[in-house]
Amino acid sequence: MIRSMFSAISGLRNHQTMMDVVGNNIANVNTTGFKSSSTVFADVLSQSVRGGGQAAANRGGTNPTRIGLGSRLASINTDFSQGSLQRTGRTTDFALQGDGFFIVESPSGRNYTRSGSFNIDAQGRLVASDGGFVQGWQANAAGTVNTSTPVTNLTIPVGTQIAPVMTTEVNVVGNLPANAAVGDTVTNGVDVYDGQGNPISLWVEYTKTGTDTWSAAARYLDASGVLQPTPPAAGTPLGTLTFDGDGQLTSSYDLTLPGGTHPDLPNDVTINLGSADTDSRVTQYGESNSITVARQDGSATGTLQSFTVSQEGLIVGTYSNGRTKAIGQLGVALFTNPEGLDAIGNAYYKESINSGLPAIGTADGGARGLIAAGTLEMSNVDLSQEFTNLILAQRGFQANSRVITTSDEMLQEVVNLKR
Fold this sequence. Notes:
Layout: H1 2-27, E1 37-43, E2 47-50, E3 65-67, E4 71-78, E5 85-87, E6 93-97, E7 101-106, E8 109-113, E9 116-117, E10 119-120, E11 126-127, E12 133-138, E13 152-153, E14 161-162, E15 169-177, E16 185-193, E17 199-210, E18 213-221, E19 227-228, E20 236-242, E21 254-257, E22 269-272, E23 282-285, E24 292-296, E25 302-309, E26 314-319, E27 324-330, E28 332-334, E29 342-345, E30 348-350, E31 359-361, E32 370-373, E33 375-377, H2 383-415
Parallel strand pairs: 15-22, 15-23
Antiparallel strand pairs: 1-4, 2-3, 5-33, 6-9, 6-32, 7-8, 7-12, 7-28, 8-30, 10-11, 12-13, 12-27, 14-25, 15-24, 16-17, 17-18, 18-19, 18-20, 21-22, 25-26, 26-27, 28-31, 29-30
Helix pairs in contact: 1-2
């Protein structure tokens, strides 16, 4: 009877621990990146009352007789299954779809988390809610990311400028009117950029010189707004366009604006007229006059205005001049045994001797999951399962309490044998 009391006490302790785990799970039902836990019980060493007997010629073997001494807590397991994703719209909120952890460098050392609720501090650094630095790879000035180097603090350089780009190519598309008279001129203009990002207003003139033949020339506006070379002087010749009877270009698809045509454009600028058998080309049909500049590859200086993050974790900045450039790359760590990680609070985990070493790399590489920007991973706690476990823990505790009560009553009967 005394043995049954101690067995029941071990059951009480274990079911109290189970209640603690269930209570913690329910408390964190809305905690971002939280992973639920579950308890596993095991019996303790049994006391042998009688050993087993070996079979003989005149009798069979006998089984051992043992009395269990209660239960113990075998383990508390963490469930790292995927939590549901909740859309937040914040550019610094990230969720991992699949395996892996974000890397955060805190004063306490390197931590790993599934909670991607990050912010940008006053110095532009990407930080976690506790101020820890989010780790990854910073891009160089050219926008190249080297992921073979160790991870470092990630910075979003808000307000920084991108260097201007001198124009080297202008792409022209559209149609020149086939019914234009000899001597008719079609003109379109475009702003190109010098090496300092200053705009230069370039004018390209297409003059019909004969049947299915056009000459191309260029002018520019000077600081006073006067065309140079000033008409009636001829513009700088770019080349000749010839078309066949079907309105298709038979001459070269590239014209060249010679370097030095404008004082701030020392290098040649290619006027590209498209390519054959594509919609993006210059043609000569009917009466339509739709010749236009589709794009040019130069730009003024620009200021970082916003950024986006791809599924692979590449951070791409968008600048005020319309250009984009890689800023950095989020790092993701993968563990052989994530259940072996030490939970230290704040949805953080630390590497342990049984977790294995972190395999750090980019998302969507080496079995790592994808990154969903503007989204957070919610807790994976299943409330229906937790309330069921709550009932089980309660009933288990009550049953063990009843064992103690019954054992006490039996002891009372023994004491009362002598009155």
